[in-house]
């Protein structure tokens, strides 16, 4: 009865349209709406699946977004809470050696704060410059590592007093993402997206805008990362840059001429010296050095200052 009334209404409103045409129209309309409903539902499911694990819904947030900072603090920064015991503890402790360069720079400073971006840990990895600071000098710090497999080693060997984050560092002031392959030596290798946060957002999420030490370890575009820091809101005493390619024995060949030395790159030197830092090394870098340090020349110890335009 209801269908008859609807058809009667349509025929009265549109007398020039036949019943056959109306049936074709209604059938087509019904099919289109069904497809649209199911497609929309599938899209929502697809989005929710990724959004439950990743951050696509706020990838274009700027580094000062309070929403972004809160989410990083609650969802991505974790306490390592590693309890070392037995043989593992002894093997780990034997690897921790004081960094002569950092001892010279910081003397016996205790309770400092550091960030190590692109950190690496493991029995086969050399001792990090920051291990001694956190284990012997009561420093607190954040270790970031985007690669899922390497991050597992971070969790296994990181000092219990530090925090960790499985993230990469954005070379812009906005959130980005990158893909990393996991289990590359097995048949189950998959590609995993990882969020890339601006350094300033990570600092705010860690409740600090001051760092005694910033180490750029495995970081793409370190110069661009430094440029993203808002000069009026961030103070850093020492910046360390690891030149993996320059210092690797595998790269001491004819191809080494094509490897960029970030420590001595003219643009990097001008950038950091323009912000008040001085070099503690000579250029070109010696092969024996694995890391170079720029130290704030300001008496108070934190830069930038005396900005050049």
From TrEMBL:
Keywords, comma-separated and alphabetical: Membrane, Transmembrane, Transmembrane helix
Entry's Gene Ontology cellular component terms: endoplasmic reticulum membrane; Golgi apparatus; late endosome membrane; plasma membrane
Segments traversing the membrane: 21-39
Gene Ontology biological process terms in this record: endoplasmic reticulum to Golgi vesicle-mediated transport; endosomal transport
Protein name: Uncharacterized protein
Source organism of the structure: Rhynocoris fuscipes
Origin organism lineage: Eukaryota, Metazoa, Ecdysozoa, Arthropoda, Hexapoda
